[in-house]
Design a protein that fits this description.
Blueprint: E1 2-5, H1 7-35, H2 40-54, E2 56-74, E3 77-94, E4 103-106, E5 111-116, E6 120-126, E7 132-134, H3 138-143, H4 146-166, H5 169-193, E8 200-205, H6 215-219, E9 221-222, H7 223-237
Parallel strand pairs: 5-8
Antiparallel strand pairs: 1-2, 2-3, 3-6, 3-7, 4-5, 4-9
Length: about 240
């Protein structure tokens, strides 16, 4: 199995977040003069909308190779075919699924916690040009369509095997690690650009929430509630 980070796409995602961060870095100076300091809620909201607009993040791509064999016996004759088939699999995160409730800002600890939709697998995209087939049908192939049947059976089994390899524990862990890192940077950079240097971003997948510290639920609030409170405070100060 050959694995590699899809760096160009991940870098694009981070670059977009950086652009948003620098924009709000300038706006933060205005907010600081008007309200006494940068507004992390507004920065996070803009970052969230920017990431949702990107639609899908592809933080990881891997290539796998499947070797399958099929055998058929009829009329006292037998035929066997072996297929070697490589294929690429993309690991994606659907950023459009991110909702305000998935983003929680803890003012006390300056920590932004992001709950991510789980990794989705796209593919495999098989590389037929690099595939190899071996074996002979002999007499059975001459009398029947055994060779074609064996090739179809091998192809179906190979695609299923490629997908099974892609969903194994190790590549799924690597894909989640890459996605978490990209998402955390994409949220952290605008916060730092806005002058909130001590902000920390912790991204977790929904399936990992059982391993979270219970205090996370007690001390942090859904982002949309924090935003509403901040808006109410500003309107009251006018």
């Amino acid at each position: 199995m050959e694995k590699r980070l899809n760096k160009p796409l991940a870098i694009v995602a981070i670059a977009v977040a950086l652009l948003v961060g620098f924009l709000f870095g300038g706006l933060a100076d205005v907010g600081k003069r008007l309200f006494g300091g940068p507004d992390p809620e507004s920065v996070v909201n803009s970052s969230l909308q920017s990431m949702r607009a990107q639609n899908r993040l592809v933080p990881f791509v891997a290539r796998y190779v499947s070797v399958t064999s099929s055998r058929q016996s009829r009329f006292g004759f037998s035929a066997e075919r072996t297929l070697i088939l490589p294929g690429d699999v993309r690991y994606e995160v659907d950023l459009a699924k991110l909702q305000p409730d998935d983003v929680r800002w803890d003012e006390a600890t300056k920590t932004l916690r992001v709950r991510l939709p789980d990794i989705e697998i796209a593919g495999p995209e098989v590389d037929l040009a690099a595939s190899r087939e071996y074996g002979e049908g002999g007499v059975l192939a001459a009398l029947t369509d055994a060779e074609g049947r064996l090739d179809k059976a091998n192809q179906a089994r190979a695609v299923a095997d490629l997908r099974k390899q892609a969903m194994a524990e190790v590549p799924m862990r690597l894909a989640r690690d890459a996605a978490r890192s990209a998402i955390e940077r994409s949220f952290a950079m605008p916060l730092k650009a806005a002058g909130i240097d001590d902000a920390k971003v912790v991204a977790r997948f929904a399936a990992e929430e059982d391993r979270e510290d219970p205090s996370y639920i007690d001390h942090s609030r859904p982002y949309n509630e924090v935003l509403e409170d901040a808006r109410a405070r500003r309107e009251g100060a006018r």
